[in-house]
Amino acid sequence: xxxxxxxxxxxxxxxxxxxxxxxxxxxxxxxxxxxVGEAVFSGGRPVVIAGPCAVESRExxxxxxxxxxxxxxxxxxxxxxxxxxxxxxxxxxxxxxLRLLAEARxxxxxxxxxxxxxxxxxxxxxxxxDMLQVGxxxxxxxxxxxGVGRSERPVLLKRGMSATVEEWLMxxxxxxxxxxxxxxxxxxxxRSFDPLLRFTLDxxxxxxxxxxxxxxxxxxxxxxxxxxxxxxxxxxxxxAAGADGLIVEMHPDRGAALCDGEQSIxxxxxxxxxxxxxxxxxxxxxxPALVA
Length: 292
Ligand code: PEP
Ligand code: MN
Prior knowledge:
The protein is an alpha/beta fold. The protein has a single domain (33-282), classed as Alpha-Beta Barrel (TIM Barrel). 32% of the residues lie in helices and 13% in strands. The protein has helices at residues 58-71, 95-108, 122-128, 142-149, 165-177, 205-212, 228-240, 267-283; strands at residues 34-36, 39-41, 47-51, 75-77, 112-115, 131-134, 155-158, 183-187, 217-219, 245-249. α6 links the parallel β8 (183-187) and β9 (217-219). It is globular and about 55 Å long. Mean pLDDT is 94; it is low at 1-5. Manganese (II) ion binds next to loops.
């Protein structure tokens, strides 16, 4: 195992050799299946979650949800509480955004995932959402990890943009240790040096996290690149690397997006991505065991 994490305080090694005891994969066949309505992570078919960065309006949210449904995606995403770098940027619609997500679920049957920013918000977000997202900027917010760990809702845990894979698994450990077994890991790009890219999608992390942990691993090619033109290629690459699914930003009217329009794909591009993802997922399905 690598060097100790964060504050350098020592932790006792887990049974599988890592300091994460509950997140560690104990044998090569151990895989946790996480179900969120019709979306089944690690269930064989890659799960495609799509929708806008932020919930902006009723019209936008319903249009996005209908597009995701028509394209064959299994879940709707959309932020109601947004963690923005600038306090002057659009912060999200708050509870009204959660209501719109619930309405979109009613209209389409798609389960919804949305971000929770602080421990106090967990009951409110869990009341409306099917899955709680812990964002990159909050991966090491330990009170929040404990808070979602006490929730009944499955959790989508994004990797911190400067976090090692071990730190990410330790964050998952907090959630598991608090009693919530339904954690899906999400690689969303790490900080690197190229100003042409918002982040650098670390595809090494996908097979590595799946080797070290039994938890499902999905990929966010939108934040991982910051460029719409790269999203399809990196979606395909993520599935080829073994990802159990994708979370993709798609906006029905990209030019008008209040948040992350540059990396949001258009509806027809989502159709392409779901098609490619399904074809590749089927092609890469494990072969039946050889009978001697
Ligand atoms: C998001 O999914 O909109 C988001 C803010 O992602 P991240 O936490 O990965 O930046
Ligand atoms: Mn975004």
